[in-house]
Write a structure and sequence with these properties.
Structural class: alpha+beta
Number of strands: 25
Strand content: 25-35%
Helix content: 25-40%
Number of helices: 16
Oligomer: single chain
Number of domains: 1
Amino acid sequence: MLEQAITQYHRMLDPSTAQITLKHLNKRQQQYNLYFGNRPLATVLRPRFISSEQKDLLESACKLIATAVRRIAVAALEDQTLRIELGLTPSEEVLISMHPGYTEPSIHSRMDTFLTLDSSSLQFVEYNAESPAAIAYQDLLSTIFLELPIMQQFATHYTIQALPARNRLMGAILNTWQTFNGTKAPNIAILDWNNVPTYPEFLLFQQHFQKHGLHTIICTPDDLAYRDGTLFAHHYQAQTNQSAQAFPIDIVYKRVLTSEILNHYGEATFIHPLIQAYGDGKICLINSFRAKLLHKKALFAILTDDSYQDMFTTEEQTAITKHIPWTRVCRAGNTTYNGQPIELLDFARTHREHLLLKPNDEYGGKGITVGWETDSNTWEEALAETLQSPFVLQERVVIAYEDYPTLIDGGVHISQRLVDSDPFLFGTDVEGCLTRLSTQTLLNVTAGGGSTVPTFVIETTTQ
């Protein structure tokens, strides 16, 4: 059904319709400021279509894996061996020792996956458990695509279901506030550095929260002060005209990464107002610093290591085997592959074309070496780098591809793109999905290039 639907959409996209579509997309993205830096998010003329069966598959598989990794997080709070295996730094250990005021380690997260068009393969490659982006982007892109004349014509043949998630995130934040014992309507601060490329999304969330009666500002860690048990922002971006008085903060919607805070402030981190207020239990931080237990890429090494399988249920073990690629912390020593003993670095050298290297704690494709796109000398240099800082070695997965149309020199050009399916999770429940497209192996927004498109569930309309 999906292949037929995609073919039908492309046939409807003649050059005139394509010009109208592109003009509308560009105009509306400009109005909503849907840009990553100076680049519009959507650069292709078709959204992502998935079936209801694919949606069910994403939801059920994500729930099983998310439940399994939370079992790791709970155990790691008591087991230093697990924390060492995850690669936590001494500073992160201190932050994780502070109780956030609630038990859920990651209120909202995102599982980055490849789901093939025929559903024959669903592979998870990363778990963004700390500060996932794109929820607001996806909601607004869905609105824009549904306005398109071609989508309205397409809707005469197929039912179309959008997958919004902003309200679910807002509800998760407010539910966590109640668990935190918050009783009043909270003041919210969206926290990240100035001039980050995701700033337009902060504005979208600020507008959404304000619309629902939640006073919300955007500020940086440098704008904060802590006195008399209250965290304040002295400089901030507010949606409406407000006095220049300091803004008292109840909830910090933390978009800045923990590693960035630690790298930026160094030894002064633990006297920073944010950390002082958090340690004193005076702010509700979402996600908390304990999300770091799930954000490390070594998490997949624990999931796929034979020696840890007794932590998981039979159903979870089956899901891990089916959906999680073999992963190991890259270091000299013995381990297993498909149940057989191997020496890891020797295995890495002889199986380069089936492996890639990832920094244990990075994002946006930074520092990744793709073995099958690398010569042996470069691969050897990358392996040597793993002796200086933590990396994981991960097995190659089945990558998903689909055809997507663009307008080039007045004509419709259809070309194959890599397709990343990234469901948003709230606790262990899926709601919403980011889709990213690229012509390169590394699919990510931060690295630039490619396109982001909304995801719609479609079914054939019965006549």
